[in-house]
Amino acid sequence: MISNTVNSIRQRTKVVPKIALVLGSGLGRFAERIEDPDVLDYRDIPRFAHSTAPGHKGRLVFGTLSGKPVVCMQGRFHYYEGHPLSDIAYPIRVMKALGADVVILTNAAGGVNPRFSAGDVMMIEDHINFMGINPLIGPNDESVGPRFPDMTYAYDPALRELAFAAACKCRIPLRRGVYLGCTGPSFETPAEIRAFRLLGADAVGMSTVPEVIAANHCGMQVLAFSLITNLAAGVLDRPLSGEEVNTIGERKSGEMERLITAVIEAL
Questions:
Q1: Sequence-ordered strand ranges (E) for 101-191
Q2: What's the CA gap between 95 and 238, in Å, rounded?
Q3: What does the DSSP 8-state code read for residue 26?
Q4: How would you label 140-157 residue by residue, b for 16+ Cβ within 10 Å and e otherwise?
Q5: Number of neighbours of residue 162 by Cβ within 10 angstroms
Q6: Are strands 102-111 and 203-205 parallel, antiparallel or unpaired?
Q7: Which of 137, 131, 45 has its CA nearest to residue 91?
Q8: Nearest Cα residue to 51 out of 81, 26, 25
Q9: How many CA atoms lie within 13 A of 35 on its CB side?
Q10: Which letter does DSSP use for residue 46 in this model?
Q11: Torsion of CA 115, 120, 121, 126, to 10 degrees
Q12: Helix crossing, 209-217 with 85-98: angle to 10°?
């Protein structure tokens, strides 16, 4: 299936990407920075699912950024949309097969760490899979990756150092911490957030973890950022909303865009 998808894509673009990007809620406009773009709708790509999350355009964009060939998912798939994790992992495997060795993921997340503020950017150093499921469950294809992939360095240490240096150069304050992935679509309760804090989580969200597992499985280097779009339930005495997430994401996305651009320039 991967070969069929790759062959179909190669008939529509000559770009051989070296870097893959996955854009989260409120961050999709970064794809507009890509030069000489070839744009493919997910619905026109064999075996790709359809993105239904608000603000996710559902397009694969090929082109160059800072002189580097890239492929960008302008919108991702989520488990809460009803997609099996195999569908969420599939684009990662396709982008690897197209030539990308590095994947940079972004997401909108709730701040669990009480020192965080809405609008902060957090570089993910590790994660906790609280989804209760793993994208590698089922028969393993050894041509894609090993049966039991190591996750000790799930977020590449060298890329994290490069990103921290890029943030300093851009004068962007960069938080660092642990991301906890839940299924959603309901936001977490205050009691859950207190429990997550005890587990060592700094931010919580509804994506990213399955894609990171799939990327490690197929041998990609991973770098990931969370834009803290709200403080998690119970941190402030008010309800949460999806509109708030997208609003903060759009307002603060410029910082994230500058940081990712600087990272790509340094790769």
A1: 102-111, 121-129, 174-181
A2: 40
A3: T
A4: eeeebbeeebeeeebbbe
A5: 16
A6: antiparallel
A7: 45
A8: 81
A9: 7
A10: T
A11: 20
A12: 50
3-state secondary structure 47-112: CCCCCCCCCCCCEEEEEEECCEEEEEEECCCCHHHCCCHHHHHHHHHHHHHHCCCEEEEEEEEEEC
**Which DSSP category does 252 fall into?**
H
Count Cα atoms within 13 angstroms, Cβ side, for 123.
Answer: 26
Phi-psi region of 190 (alpha: psi -120 to 50; beta: other; left: phi over 0): alpha
Asked, as a colleague might, if the bond just before 190 is cis with ω within 30 of 0, I would say no
What are the φ and ψ backbone dihedral angles of 136, each rounded to 5 degrees? -95, 0
Amino acid at position 75, single letter: G
Six token digits for residue 58: 């559902």
pLDDT in tens, the chain (267 residues): 999 999 999 999 999 999 999 998 767 788 889 999 999 999 999 999 987 776 668 999 999 999 999 999 998 999 999 999 999 999 999 999 999 999 999 998 999 999 998 889 999 999 999 999 999 999 999 999 999 999 999 999 999 999 999 999 999 999 999 999 999 999 899 999 999 999 999 999 999 999 999 999 999 999 999 999 888 654 555 565 556 656 666 677 788 889 999 999 999
As given in the structure block, the two tokens for residue 32 are: 């507009």
- Separation of alpha carbons 79 and 177, rounded Å: 23
Radius of gyration of the chain (CA): 17
